Amino acid sequence: MAESDWDTVTVLRKKGPTAAQAKSKQAINAAQRRGEDLETTKKWSGGQNKQHLVTKNTAKLDRETEELHHQRVPLEVGKVIQLGRQKNGLTQKDLATKINEKPQIIADYECGKAIPNNQVMGKIERAIGLKLRGKEIGLPVDPLPQKKK
Questions:
Q1: Which spans does this entry mark as compositional bias, Basic and acidic residues (predicted)?
Q2: First-last CA distance in the chain
Q3: 54 phi and psi, to 5 degrees?
Q4: Among 27, 79, 108, 145, who pairs with 114 as Cys (CB 3.0-4.6 Å)?
Q5: Do the beta carbons of residue 106 and residue 95 sit within 8 Å?
């Protein structure tokens, strides 16, 4: 019965402070007074809903003298698309349906707002029968060469 003495208390393990308690101002000050080594790091935009942030090179981009922007479809190409579409009796919606794209894409290409995509340009070329790329813009598309037997 000597093991069940009421006067002695045995502590097996004492839990350390929780993460929130360890980060508090009081805990930091107490650790500094005890002379412990502290490592503090600040999370960049921690706890905020910032998924689409401007990169850290923003200042560098601001100092650039040249304008940085995506190349757009030239108006010349837009006019060729429009003329070729009208020559074939197609509306923007008809052409879009024919090439499996949205009508807004055709509108963007015709007014020069679209960023050129070779796949879309190729589909439009085949649909209207006119070249839209290279030096021969507006000329008829050559049919695929036939294999010689």
A1: 33-42
A2: 108
A3: -70, 140
A4: 108
A5: yes
- Residue corresponding to tokens 């837009």: 78
Task: Return the SS3 of 86.
Answer: helix
Instruction: Give me the helices (H) in 1-149, please.
Output: 19-22, 25-34, 58-63, 75-87, 92-98, 103-111, 118-128
Given a contact cutoff of 8 angstroms between Cβ atoms, the answer to whether 72 and 115 are in contact is: yes
Burial class (CB in 10 A: 0-12, 13-18, 19+), 77: buried
**pTM over 0.70, yes/no:** no
State CA 28 to chain mean position distance.
40
Q: Which residue has the tokens 């809903």?
A: 49
Residue 4 DSSP label:
G
Here the tokens at position 33 are 């007074």
